[in-house]
Amino acid sequence: MADLDDRLEELLPFYALDALSDEEREQVEAYLDANPAARARLAEMQQAADALPFVATPVEPPIQLKASLMARIEADARVRFPAQRESSAKSGRLARLFQPRASFAFAGLCLIVAVGALAWALTLNTEMTRLRDDVAALREEVADQNELLADIARPGVQTMQIVGTEIRPEAHGNLIANPDTESAIVLLGGLSQPEPGKVYQFWLIRGDEPVSAGTFTVDDQGRAALVITAQEAIRLFDAVGVSIEPEGGSPQPTGDIVMLSTL
Amino acid sequence: MSRNELSDEQLLAQIAAGSPGALEVLYDRYAPAVLGLALKLTSDQVAAEEVVQETFWRAWRNAHTYQTQRGACSSWLFGIARNLTIDLYRRRKARPQTLLDDASDQRFENVPDPDADVAESVWTAIQHTQVRAAVNSLPDEQRQVIELAFFAGMTRQEIAEMTGEPLGTVHTRARLALKKLREALQSEGFDG
Asked: How far apart are CA B192 and CA A46, in angstroms?
């Protein structure tokens, strides 16, 4: 029995790497079902294995790939989930009810359609203007994004770790900057959602003097990405910190300090 | 709350209920990473795009089978993509690429996604750097076992045969590699 357990333990890394035969996988799963300690060991291995896909550099797929996939999915949705299309089917049946009526009714219908088409054209025009604005905004965003990514790769850029205080030990992050410049990218994680009416505030600290670098919230995974700009070069600051403050921020830290690190 | 703000799990629940819109958001979120992975495994743009399309098709058809307790949605998607690639190569009786060389990545231009926000892109870039650094910090013989098992889909027996090492050594290297990788990721501050 002990021999069997040893053999199954040896398979755990390959289970995490998804490199077992079906038969081996079933044996390991039966072993895991009866062995919570083995499940805990596997969970640790799995954390490492789950990161492996991130070795690959993300590559933007061609637009037509998405278009072709979505067309296939829309077609499948019409067949498998017809209930979701009922409203359009119903309106079609409703329209057919009017068809055999008197000719003046038909003419009236044509008029309604013409007015509707005109309204639709106007709506389309408005929509097109809105889309043009969206495209312009997106282009600007992509340019910002490229600039930001280029900043990370620039010579002289250093990454400094930011750690959580005992109030929030799981908080962590990096400040990425060329210390001779005034701006930095800050990536934070492990933060919980602040209570309603509260926000996080980022501080650059010189001696005993904290200088606000802005307030922020976190996403549903407790992460935030900030671009901060100081009045002076980053190298002149001794430390950075994050505190919890009332919405709108404070001139000085007043709430719990959740992150603090010397630079 | 817009769909873009929904968690992966919430999107999968909507996909399982028949929402193509939710699938589109999931695609925008993960298709670049899935294509990157498939390109690393295949070095073949056409095959990699085929893998991306099939991965999200299967996500659409099988969203109801996803179980949160069995891992993150991203791992589920990457698992589908990886298995599809390995199956593809088994059919062609060839092996996917295994080396973690930068050159293979740089052959494909990384075009910024206009739908992605800056924060997400920066996070992805940082995650990529952190994981690559962590994997590169492993001793060569341990890294090789992981590459052959995960990226080339080889069994432990095949790895032992290929490397000329006893099976027990392959087991030990795999265990140590995952342990060290986890520690390295933690010290890198990886938050995948």
From this structure: 12
Query: Using CB atoms, which residue from A14, A18, A69 is nearest to B56?
Result: A69
Q: Is A215 in a helix, a strand, or coil?
A: strand
With a threshold of 0.85, tell me whether the complex ipTM lies above it. Answer: no
Please check whether residue A173 is in contact with residue A200, taking contact to mean a CB–CB distance below 8 angstroms.
Answer: no
B1: contact with A, CB 8 A cutoff: no
User: B131 and A54: CB-CB below 8 Å?
Assistant: yes
pTM (two decimals): 0.55
Distance CA B70, CA A42 (A): 12
Q: Taking CB atoms and an 8 Å cutoff, what residues of chain B touch A56?
A: 33, 36-37, 39-40, 105, 128
Q: What are the C-alpha distances in Å from A152 to residues A138, A146, B75, B112, B114?
A: 21, 10, 27, 15, 19
Residues from chain B contacting residue A11 (CB–CB below 8 Å): 156
pLDDT in tens, A25-70: 999 999 999 999 999 999 999 989 988 988 888 888 998 899 999 9
H/E element, A118: helix A103-153
Sheet with strand A209-216: strands edge to edge: A209-216, A198-206, A239-246, A257-262
What gap in Å lies between CA A81 and CA A74, rounded to an integer?
10
